[in-house]
Design brief:
By secondary structure, the protein is of the alpha/beta class. Helix content is about 35%, strand content about 15%. It contains 12 helices and 13 strands. The strands form 4 sheets. Strands 1-9-8-5-4-2-3 form a 7-stranded mixed beta sheet, sandwiched between helices. A two-stranded antiparallel sheet has the order 6-7. Strands 10-11 form a two-stranded antiparallel ribbon. α4 links the parallel β2 and β3. The protein is globular and about 65 Å long. The two termini are about 20 Å apart.
Length: about 350
């Protein structure tokens, strides 16, 4: 069996164990020195001047929006193809998600569709760097500048990715990352972080994550309880050192997948439109997805569909009167993700290629 993911610590097992034991020995578990250090280290790795650790990637998006003053009465343009949490975070901030369709090749928010969705209530654009492929941030940033809109980048699947040579997260006012265990940089639990180059946004995000406190027991505004704990911060510090190597291995595996499947008839591989892609997932498309998935299952290869339902069609979004996005609808009917992670067994690509009739 070739599993879709492998989440147990591997080469990092000893350093992860040491990190946990260090925190336990210190006896400081919330808002302590491990988080302070990880925030500095992650900001440096991501090309940002500041980072604010929070409880989840969803909270990172919602708090980033609130830190920018976006909330009730505002609209935020985002992608219909993503985990629903992207849109739910907009709703958590009190704003309304507005969906603009995707680029059919890049599979991320189409800048022209985003521009067409701007209304007098639009306050921000929230592009998603989906599957590790950066969105067209040159085009999206231009739309934001033209209409005086904030840009908040959803980098939850794009740790260390770049767009046109620039780090993702550096194009807008703030960015959000997730450390859910399946991510390229994953914790052993939940976690998230906000990055920004604006000291005022960082300071407000730090207040908002901690109940809106200006100092202990003094709450200056409505905040939430969303803090990246010391154990997860310590684990992430250990794993951050290995992330560049893991990213290189993901890219090597993706290149080999592309070589093996270049002439495939059962599936098509979305193009790599920027060499800053970090391959959180390796998606393929097929009009006969169920048959392809069944063939791979019979060969012992586990696959997943991410995502089977476009966000505008989720019942939780019905009250927002979302626009239909036909390209995203079609992609959700065809998309299928193949196993791809740094410790993928060497024979896995052989098995996948042979099952799909390729060599």
């Amino acid at each position: 069996m070739i599993p879709f993911l492998q989440l147990k610590p591997g080469e990092d097992a000893a350093s992860v164990r040491d990190a946990v034991e260090r925190v336990i020995a210190r006896g400081w578990f919330i808002l302590g020195p491990e988080l302070d250090a990880f925030e500095r280290e992650f900001a440096a790795a991501s090309g940002a001047s500041a980072a604010v650790g929070v409880g989840t990637g969803t909270d990172a998006l919602a708090i980033a929006l609130r830190a920018l003053g976006i909330g009730r009465g505002d609209e935020v343009i985002t992608s219909p193809l993503s985990a629903a949490y992207s849109a739910l975070a907009i709703m958590m901030a009190g704003a309304r998600p507005v969906f603009a369709d995707i680029d059919p090749e890049r599979l991320t928010l189409d800048p022209q569709a985003a521009a067409a969705a701007v209304t007098p209530r639009t306050a921000a654009i929230l592009p998603v760097h989906l599957y590790g492929q950066p969105a067209d941030m040159i085009g999206i940033a231009a739309v934001g500048e033209r209409h005086n809109l904030a840009v908040v980048e959803d980098c939850c699947q794009a740790h260390l990715a770049t767009c046109a040579g620039r780090p993702v997260g550096s194009f807008g006012a703030a960015a959000a990352y997730s450390f859910y265990p399946t991510k390229n940089l994953g914790a052993l639990g939940d976690g998230g972080i906000i990055t920004t180059n604006d000291a005022n946004v960082a300071a407000r995000a730090k207040r908002l994550r901690n109940g809106g406190q200006t100092d202990r027991y003094h709450h200056g505004e409505f905040g939430v309880n969303s803090r990246l704990d010391e154990i997860q911060a310590a684990i992430l510090r250990a794993r951050l050192q290995l992330l560049p190597g893991w990213t290189l291995q993901r890219r090597k595996l993706a290149a080999e997948y592309r070589r093996r499947l270049a002439n495939a008839t059962a599936v098509t591989v979305p193009p790599e439109l920027d060499d800053g892609h970090v391959y959180h997932l390796f998606p393929v498309r097929s009009a006969s997805r169920e048959a392809v998935q069944s063939t791979l299952r019979a060969a012992g290869v586990e696959t997943l569909i991410r995502y089977p339902v476009p966000i505008p069609k989720q019942p939780a979004l019905a009250s927002e009167q979302p626009s239909d996005c036909p390209i995203a609808n079609r992609v959700c009917d065809e998309i299928l993700s193949l196993p791809l992670y740094p410790s993928l067994p060497p024979n896995a690509l052989d098995i996948v290629a042979e099952a799909l009739g390729e060599r």
